[in-house]
Specification:
The protein is α/β, with parallel strands linked by helices. The protein has helices at residues 12-25, 46-53, 64-77, 89-107, 123-134, 143-146, 152-161, 237-250, 275-291, 294-312, 319-332, 362-365, 377-385, 387-396; strands at residues 3-7, 28-35, 57-62, 112-114, 139-141, 174-178, 183-187, 216-223, 226-230, 233-234, 255-261, 267-273, 337-344, 347-354. The strands form 3 sheets. The protein has a 5-stranded parallel beta sheet with strand order 3-2-1-4-5, sandwiched between helices. Strands 10-9-8-13-14 form a 5-stranded antiparallel beta sheet, covered by helices on one side. Strands 6-7-12-11 form a 4-stranded antiparallel beta sheet, with no helix packed on it.
């Protein structure tokens, strides 16, 4: 192989992968850093780090708006929650990164794409599914599945042997992954399900116990399912998410500690922080309550369940996901309105819901006297609705 594109982060794993690829494939390594909204400190001097490890070139691609607009919103609008709790932060980021890798590889006529995902996790599947779906002729190299290094210590020794400096140390208790949507934490005390998490398991939001003692109201203006304003200030999808992350984190919103079923068969425990995403999800579900009719809401929920598995498994670029998104787009056309959310010590509740497309009509729903609903009509409806049950009971008797 002459050219290999590496999904590069500047961390220990990918810093070791660059010299390993050059040594084992006698090739040029081109590093691609995906900016999906992670901590800006992770991008400081990242290009120089890649060059120090032996990369021929390194590019940093800004994917933040693309990520939020074209991956996060199609997912969250479907109501996708993996196993009922996980807002799919890591899962949604992988296809947008993998697509950027493919685009870059094609642009420089590369032979292969390499990644630093391990053979135990979900990310190897997500990366490689996308690569195979978009560029089936490109080879995929997953060093963790084939090299003889087994630990963090092995990687540090390898870099020392190559005289490549690194700021990493042998002490790394937790594994963290961050992007515009969330931060995940795994490892450490979380590897024992009987052990309580601690503050080291969270780094974005404050502990709800020490959050402000006064609730805060935040108004979201939504157009076709997308947040366009926060407290009447117009913002792009990414900017709105950023603002809501800031507000939600202050109140300890969006913290969860869960055990999930990985695609590869094992269970894993993780702490996830999704403050802005939790606010947006709460607002969208509240808006649906007044806009979507019963059958639409039922179908959206069913599609959301299927979507959660497709996204978790990394099958973004498949016909089923595209079909679900097309249906969700139809439902989203009428999701216009304003939702006021109350934030208080980890709680996130929709307090006010309004929409020009609301199907809620107080004239029909009131418990007071009305002139639009004839209660006598319910008798005939119930007789027909329960007719099959009545016939079944009569036959049995």
């Amino acid at each position: 192989m002459k050219k290999i594109v590496l999904a590069y982060s500047g961390g220990l794993d990918t810093s070791a992968i660059i010299p390993w690829l050059k040594e084992n494939y006698d090739c040029e390594v081109y590093a691609l850093v995906a900016d999906v909204g992670q901590d800006k400190n992770e991008l400081v001097d990242v290009k120089q780090k890649a060059f120090n490890s032996g990369a021929k070139d390194c590019v940093v691609v800004d994917l933040k708006e693309d990520f939020v607009k074209n991956y996060i919103y199609p997912t969250i609008l479907s109501g996708a929650l993996y196993e009922g709790t996980y807002l799919l932060g890591t899962s949604m980021a992988r296809p947008v990164i993998a697509k950027a890798l493919v685009d870059y590889a094609i642009s420089i006529n590369a032979d292969a794409i390499a990644h630093g995902a391990t053979g135990k996790g979900n990310d190897q599947v997500r990366f490689e599914y996308t690569i195979n779906a978009l560029a089936p002729k490109l080879e995929v190299i997953a060093p963790w599945r084939i090299w003889n290094m087994k630990s963090r210590e092995d990687l540090l020794d390898f870099l020392a042997l190559k005289n490549i400096k690194t700021t990493a140390s042998k002490e790394k208790i937790y594994s963290k992954d961050a992007n515009a949507w969330h931060i995940s934490t795994e490892g450490g005390v979380l590897e024992d399900t009987t052990t309580f998490n601690n503050e080291d398991c969270f780094c974005l939001s404050v502990n709800p116990k020490i959050a402000p003692n006064e609730a805060e109201l935040v108004k979201l203006s939504i157009e076709k399912g997308v947040v366009t304003k926060v407290n009447d200030i117009s913002l792009s999808p990414y900017e709105a998410l950023n603002k809501l992350n800031e507000i939600g984190a202050k109140h300890g919103v969006g913290r969860i500690d869960i055990v999930e079923n990985r695609l590869v068969g094992m269970k894993s425990r993780g702490c996830y922080e999704t403050p802005g995403g939790t606010i947006i999800n709460t607002a969208l579900r509240a808006l649906e309550q007044i806009v979507l009719d019963r059958d639409s809401l039922k179908l959206r929920a069913m599609l959301g369940l299927e979507m959660s598995y497709l996204v978790y498994d990394g099958k973004w670029f498949c016909p089923t996901r595209a079909a679900i998104s097309a249906a969700i787009n139809e439902f989203s056309k009428d999701l216009n309105g304003e939702i006021i959310i109350e934030l208080y010590k980890g709680n996130c509740n929709a307090m006010s819901k309004s929409s020009p497309n609301s199907l809620f009509d107080k004239d029909f729903a009131t418990f007071s006297e009305d002139e639009v609903y004839n209660q006598f009509d319910a008798a005939g409806f119930i007789r027909l609705f329960s007719l099959s049950a009545k016939i079944r009971a009569l036959k049995k008797s």
